[in-house]
Structures are given as structure tokens and as C-alpha cells.
Write a structure and sequence with these properties.
There is one protein chain. This protein is α/β, with parallel strands linked by helices and about 375 residues long. The chain is about 40% helix and about 15% strand. It has 2 domains: about 5-125 and about 295-345, Response regulator (Rossmann fold), CATH 3.40.50.2300; about 135-295, Rossmann fold, CATH 3.40.50.2300. The protein has helices spanning about 5-15, 45-60, 75-85, 100-110, 135-150, 175-190, 210-215, 220-230, 250-260, 280-285, 295-310, 355-360, 365-370, and strands at about 35-40, 65-70, 90-95, 115, 130-135, 160-165, 195, 240-245, 270, 290-295, 325, 340-345, 350. The chain is globular and about 65 Å long.
Length: about 375
């Protein structure tokens, strides 16, 4: 792991081990307390997001406390209760799962404002704000990248391209948005017969049984097991042309498994990704991973604090670079119990051709940026 990330993870781990205690380095400036609850540390962007949210809040004169939930909802709920006990006036929550709802209900009872961060808090009517990236567009970008790379517009049904499908978590509404966005692009080609799915095929995420069979829970170990099983069974006598992967962590796991199969030596399938993680960006640069979708989470974190600041000041939200979800996009804020105000930022597809985009956005360390140039 990179030096800077290692430091951030070390801070995160201390928060996990001491969920009821203040994290060292808290701001001593005046202002209300903003509590920040992030779900985990094994996905790099959550660690970066926690650090950026804290820094942006303190820049505006707020106190800020960051907690990481170790991908365990019971831990995160206790951390949220701790933050409420410290009299947090506003919580920014990247939830582990829908089981965060009881903690959000406690926040509502204390009249503490809650902003769902990058993950919709499902099955709750106890909060009003959600800020994230346009999840439908993320999936559309992933699906279209495969269409273009496979040349599906001119493909022959007599020689269909083969595709395996992977998804995120059954507890994460983002996973449904990403998948459905991608399949809205891919399904027409499957129906035309120029693209053939190998393995489970949920036409949409609404097919929960089939979706569960391709869901990884965002865990690379689960993705490796699913891919290994696929290569030993349904894809044993087939060379996959492409794999729809929901993020970079899963993409690298899929690629690692393919490298162990002789028929993929020098002939890896086209694999999508998400998050612009440095390790996957290097794979995109080398051509081993087709693409990633860059979510400028620094921009998202800054926008979340702008939103928090405006809410606490009683102002009408007006966030540079973000827009209110309206019309068909309102569904992105449907918790199942209410539709919350949802602010969106657009993602960017990154391939070898525009690998400079996240680099120019200052998303990496100096050494990483140099390696990608």
C-alpha cells in the first residue's frame, strides 16, 4: 500500500478500535460538531473521503470527528450513537447497509441533520438529504465502454461475444443503479444475439435471486471465488471476451484469477471498473483493464461539506458542480419510505486515451501521478 494511504488507514483503524472515543487531531476551532461516519477502509476512496470531509469541515470552522465502521453495521451504529452523544449537529453517513436506519432514527429524535454520503440510506424516512454521483450514468458508461470495445454494433450473431456479469452488494442501492445502468445498454445486444452471457444473468437488479449470485459484497475475495468457479464450470470451455465489473477492487480480483488460466495468457477479457484506484489505473495504462469510471470523491466530499454548511446556516443549497436530481433521476433518492433531496455529480469514463483526467484533478500522490503520465 502507498505510504500516504498507509497513514490514513492507520488513523482509520484507530477509529475502529475506539468507536466511542474522539479521534486524535480533532479541530480545536469554534463551531458546531459535524460527525462523519464512513463504512470501511478496505476501499481506498472511503479513507480519502473521511480525511477530506474532516479537513473541509474544519476549514469552515467546524469541529469534525471521523469514524470508520469496519464494514460492520453494528459497529457503525455504535459510532453514530457516540457522535450523537457528543452533540453532533449534523451527520454525514456513508452507510454499511440499510440496517443503519435505527441509528438514523435516533438522530432524527435528537433533531440532528443527516446527509447520506455516496450511499442511499434505504428503508428510512428519518433524513432529508443525499449527495452522490449519478449512479445510472456510471453503469451506462461501463456498459457503453464494453459495447464500443467489443464492436457490438457490427457484431455477427453467428459469432457472439461472451460476457460474464458481476455486481456490488445486495445491501447497497448504488450497486443496483450501477448494474441497471449498464444493463440498459447491454440488454439490447444480448437480445439481438450478438452478446452472450456466461453464468448467471439477471436482466435487471430486480431479479434479486440471480443478482445475489453475481453480487460480491464489494469484497475481492468473494469476486475471486465467483470468478474461479465460473472458469471451472460455465466458462471452462469458453474464452470470455469481457466482464462487467462494478468497481476497481473487483476488477483486479477478476484479472488476477484470469491470469491463472492458461487460455487468458496475453488475452485477458475486457474488464470494466470504477473509482480510479491507482493500482487499476496502472492496469488501464498497460491495457490489462479496459477502463475505470472516475468519481472525483474529493469534489464530492467538498460538495457534501458545502451542503452541510448551507443547511446549518438555514440557506437554500446551491452546490458548485452538483445538481438536484429531478424527473426520472428522482428515483435515485427513493429510500423505499420517502424520496430525499438528492444532489448529483457526474462521473467520467477513463481509458488509456484520457488517463490524464484524474491525474490532472490531483487525485493521486506526486509519485503516482508521475507513474501514470
Amino acid at each position: 500500500m502507498k505510504c500516504c494511504s498507509a497513514v490514513l488507514v492507520a488513523v482509520a483503524v484507530s477509529a475502529i478500535l475506539l468507536p466511542g472515543c474522539k479521534q486524535s487531531g480533532s479541530s480545536t476551532s469554534g463551531g458546531a460538531l459535524i460527525g462523519i461516519a464512513m463504512p470501511e477502509t478496505h476501499v481506498t476512496h472511503w479513507v480519502k473521503d473521511g480525511a477530506t470531509l474532516k479537513a473541509e469541515a474544519e476549514k469552515r470552522g467546524y469541529h469534525a470527528e471521523v469514524q470508520f465502521g469496519d464494514a460492520d453495521q453494528s459497529i457503525q451504529n455504535r459510532q453514530i450513537q457516540t457522535l450523537l452523544g457528543l452533540d453532533a449537529k449534523l451527520l454525514i453517513v456513508g452507510s454499511v447497509s440499510a440496517d443503519v436506519a435505527p441509528a438514523i432514527a435516533e438522530a432524527a429524535q435528537k433533531k440532528t441533520v443527516v446527509i447520506a454520503f455516496d450511499r442511499l440510506i434505504q428503508n428510512s424516512a428519518d433524513y432529508d438529504y443525499f449527495i452522490t454521483f449519478n449512479g445510472d450514468k456510471i453503469g451506462v458508461l461501463q456498459g457503453q465502454s464494453l459495447v464500443d470495445a467489443l464492436g457490438l454494433e457490427n457484431a455477427d450473431p453467428k459469432a457472439p461475444k461472451s460476457l460474464a456479469l458481476f455486481a456490488g452488494s445486495i445491501t447497497d442501492a448504488n450497486a443496483f443503479s450501477f448494474y441497471d445502468g449498464a444493463m440498459s445498454v447491454l440488454n439490447p445486444y444480448i437480445e439481438k444475439g450478438v452478446l452472450k452471457v456466461i453464468g448467471p444473468y439477471p436482466k435487471t437488479s430486480a431479479d434479486r435471486d440471480a443478482f445475489g449470485k453475481i453480487a460480491t459484497g464489494w469484497q475481492s475475495s468473494t469476486a475471486k471465488n465467483l470468478m474461479d468457479n465460473l472458469l471451472k464450470n460455465e466458462a471452462k470451455n469458453i474464452t470470455l471476451n469481457a466482464v462487467l465489473s462494478p468497481n476497481d477492487n473487483i476488477a483486479r480480483a477478476i484479472i488476477d484469477v484470469c491470469r491463472t488460466d492458461a487460455k487468458y495468457k496475453g488475452n485477458l477479457p475486457l474488464v470494466t471498473g470504477l473509482d480510479g484506484e491507482f493500482e487499476s489505473m496502472m492496469l488501464v495504462k498497460s491495457g490489462e483493464q479496459l477502463c475505470t469510471v472516475f468519481k472525483n470523491t474529493t469534489q464530492l466530499s467538498e460538495a457534501a461539506i458545502v451542503l452541510a454548511d448551507q443547511i446549518l446556516k438555514g440557506q437554500t443549497p446551491d452546490i458548485p458542480g452538483a445538481y438536484l436530481a429531478e424527473g426520472p433521476l428522482e428515483k435515485l433518492g427513493d429510500t423505499g419510505k420517502k424520496v430525499v433531496k438528492t444532489y448529483l455529480i457526474d462521473p467520467v469514463l477513463v481509458t488509456k486515451e484520457n488517463i490524464n483526467v484524474p491525474v490532472d484533478a490531483g487525485f493521486y500522490t506526486a509519485s503516482e501521478s508521475e507513474a501514470l503520465r
